[in-house]
């Protein structure tokens, strides 16, 4: 991943809500004497039987003296009040759909296997048989590149290397995300640091990653990880990579971490690696794993998406740049209605409009 | 897509909730005289000033006579009471992360471009130069196959074809999903039918699909769509495909729809196509677009995921079978905590455990 940011607006405001919940539950409980119980079938016998129950049950519907309906809730949490962020509120303990997809589905596994198969074919079938490897092109955009005018150097005498991101590219953070699913929305940097330090055995390799990385090394190509994981927890990251079958790595040579004071952008580190190696392929789950230009602040959500397909960048996907699926977090999870769905493509159910 | 089912548990129970909401809002409104207003800074002047306000504002915190705290809410909807399904409750009008990813991100666009590039390379670079095309293998599993023992026929004299699913494989249902995002969770078959009938101009091609499909046809290979869209709305689906640049199609030959009485499985239709054509590649966003065996009822979520990588199926991804990303709906969005996150990989933040 390029940077591990909280998805904007997912944090739940916790203060004051318990009082609000108590108030909801309290309506039928405290006002028991003043309400008339109704049921959908309206049978008197059933009604009187249930009125004797001391404790109303979740789902019971009451009518108050002033004619309003009230339903007993079993809620233990509420969405935050207006004014507080309200985006997603998946009940804690339920696995949100994007996590079911990435960590639980065969579909996401197949996407990863497909990406690694494409990477392997590119390296093994296309590059290996080139007689003059010095004419092979690096896939790192040069400093004077733009997204509409990407430029690349040839390899010269530098040894070949493949550069991967770590999180959700070669390594699945199963433990951290299981905790996040149980906890509900919201991201905490401190928790991520504790995860790096204590979760080394709660990870798994992305499907296809370990086998492909071993095969790349077998072909004599160096594998380098360029990650925003912190330099201060290096030993734990090395441990996690080894336990997932993705090692061995050498810190500072084949494992490049982020200094805590350094920016999250990866271009500078890529260019530094490119001084020593010819980077012939890159793998990542975020566009920032390929170029920081995708994260320019003035690039709108639709423009960012368009650059991947409508520029000279397009032919790189599956041919030097290899992307892994990650709908769970990251810089791609942005945009309101009109940015995600072009205005001229929005639709409203005609049956609803008639009402 | 293989079958367009509501994601289990997303439907909101609407009845009775308006009363519940009224009760929440009513606490501070009706009990205005009996509560003492508190503020975090505790300045008396500010407090008295705000007490004069006739209408409490969202976020205001009150303390009731019995010492409980109550916060004014601006909520207009609540999650359903316990007992009703509670999975996801994204505020309507906010775009949920899985939709931001699929329809709005450059990452998903890149995944699609990568899949179509792999498909093109497979057809154009690998199959086109085969001298004896009768020895090319079909990629449709034969009737006597199992997931652990997949079997394939050779092509013989049949002409080559590529079979695609339609929805979220070649066509993005931008209009329908914009409506779904505005509306919040819940799927309605009637709404989908109205969408098929009225949304033909509110779609777009999946990135890479239109160009690749045109190129496949240019290579003399037939393109066939095998979809669960209804036969009764055929004209609208043809219209949508044409408008997205994915046509032309011939109903019953290169566009195979589902009869309303027929099951959602696609194997029978695949085998029928395979009588006339040699299917050398398939594209889909659901495992059921490749074989119905993935949807066997006795296949657990983890087992289903494992079959994609740990069987003889694995080499097919990117080499005959091409999968497109879709974390928004479908048969991959299943599983509770222990199915999505293996028990031995679950983790809990040690800082929280100490509390």
UniProtKB/TrEMBL annotation, chains A, B:
Gene Ontology CC annotations of this record: cell outer membrane
Signal peptide: 1-25
UniProt-listed SUPFAM superfamilies: HAD-like
Protein name, UniProt field: 5'-nucleotidase (Lipoprotein e(P4) family)
Location of the region described as Disordered in the Swiss-Prot/TrEMBL record: 38-57
Comp. bias regions, Basic and acidic residues: 40-54
Native organism taxonomy: Bacteria, Pseudomonadati, Pseudomonadota, Alphaproteobacteria, Sphingomonadales
Source organism superkingdom: Bacteria
Keyword Cell cycle: no
A Pfam match: Acid_phosphat_B
Alphabetized UniProt keyword annotations: Lipoprotein, Signal
């Amino acid at each position: 991943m390029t940077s591990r940011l909280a998805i904007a607006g997912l944090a739940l405001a916790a203060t004051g809500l318990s009082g609000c919940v108590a108030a909801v539950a309290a309506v039928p409980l405290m006002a028991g004497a003043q309400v008339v119980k109704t049921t959908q079938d309206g049978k008197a016998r059933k009604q009187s039987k249930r009125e004797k129950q001391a404790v109303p049950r979740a789902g019971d519907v009451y009518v108050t003296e002033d004619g309003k309906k009230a339903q007993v809730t079993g809620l233990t949490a509420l969405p935050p009040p207006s004014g507080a962020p309200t985006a997603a509120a998946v009940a804690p303990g339920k696995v949100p759909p994007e996590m079911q997809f990435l960590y639980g589905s065969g579909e996401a596994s197949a996407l990863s296997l497909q990406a690694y198969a494409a990477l392997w074919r590119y390296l093994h079938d296309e590059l290996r048989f080139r007689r003059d490897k010095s004419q092979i092109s690096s896939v790192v955009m040069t400093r004077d590149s733009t997204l509409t005018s990407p430029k690349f150097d040839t390899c010269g005498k530098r040894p070949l290397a493949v550069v991967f991101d770590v999180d959700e590219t070669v390594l699945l953070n199963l433990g951290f995300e299981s905790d996040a699913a149980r906890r509900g929305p919201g991201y905490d940097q401190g928790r991520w640091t504790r995860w790096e330090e204590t979760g080394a055995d709660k990870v798994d390799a992305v499907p296809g990653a370990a086998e492909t990385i071993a095969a790349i090394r077998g072909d004599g190509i160096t594998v380098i990880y360029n990650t925003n994981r912190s330099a201060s927890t290096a030993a734990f990251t090395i441990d996690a990579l080894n336990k997932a079958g993705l090692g061995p790595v050498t810190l500072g040579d084949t494992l490049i971490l982020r200094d805590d004071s350094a920016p999250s952008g990866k271009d500078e580190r890529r260019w530094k690696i490119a001084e020593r190696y010819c980077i012939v392929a890159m793998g990542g789950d975020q566009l920032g794993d390929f170029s920081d230009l995708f994260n320019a602040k003035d690039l709108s959500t639709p423009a960012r998406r368009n650059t991947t397909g409508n520029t000279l960048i397009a032919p790189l996907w599956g041919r030097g740049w290899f992307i892994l699926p990650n709908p769970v977090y990251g810089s791609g999870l942005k945009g309101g209605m009109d940015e995600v769905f072009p205005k001229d493509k929005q639709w409203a159910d005609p049956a609803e409009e008639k009402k």
